[in-house]
Amino acid sequence: MFKQLSDDDRRAIDLMLNRMRQAEAGATVFAGSDGVVPQERLAAVQKVFALLDELPAEDPPEDLVARTLKRVNESKSMAEMVPPQLRAEPPPPNELV
Questions:
Q1: Distance between CA atoms of residues 6 and 37, nearest Å
Q2: Is 11:39 a contact under the CB 8 Å cutoff?
Q3: What is the pTM of this model?
């Protein structure tokens, strides 16, 4: 099932994540909305977050770091294959505006 998020959904998610971040930091968090996000969208986001909390937390694969570093190294070697005239090189320091 695919659901496109509306602008109200996005604002509700942002508001909830900001509240959660503030609460974790020990800041005082007020329960009211800022008036821009409809209460029904906030309630829907809270329901989704509650469902996500019920999912089991899985540990990352043991080889995640090794695979990530391998991909980084592969991308570096691929970058070397690009002809010099096509590379995006930064200008020398004395030419920066």
A1: 11
A2: no
A3: 0.49
Decide: 8 and 38 in contact? Cβ < 8 Å. yes
The pLDDT profile of the chain, 97 residues, written as one tens digit per residue, is: 677 888 998 999 998 888 888 888 876 666 555 567 888 888 988 998 999 999 998 899 999 999 999 998 888 777 777 777 776 666 666 655 5
∠ CA 28-47-29, nearest 5°, is 5
87's torsion region: left (phi>0), alpha (psi -120 to 50) or beta? beta
Q: Give domain status of residue 13, yes or no.
A: yes
Token look-up 């995640």 returns: 64
* Domain presence at residue 17: yes
Question: Residue 37: which domain range?
Answer: 7-54
Distances (CA, A) of 89 to 34, 43, 82: 45, 49, 12
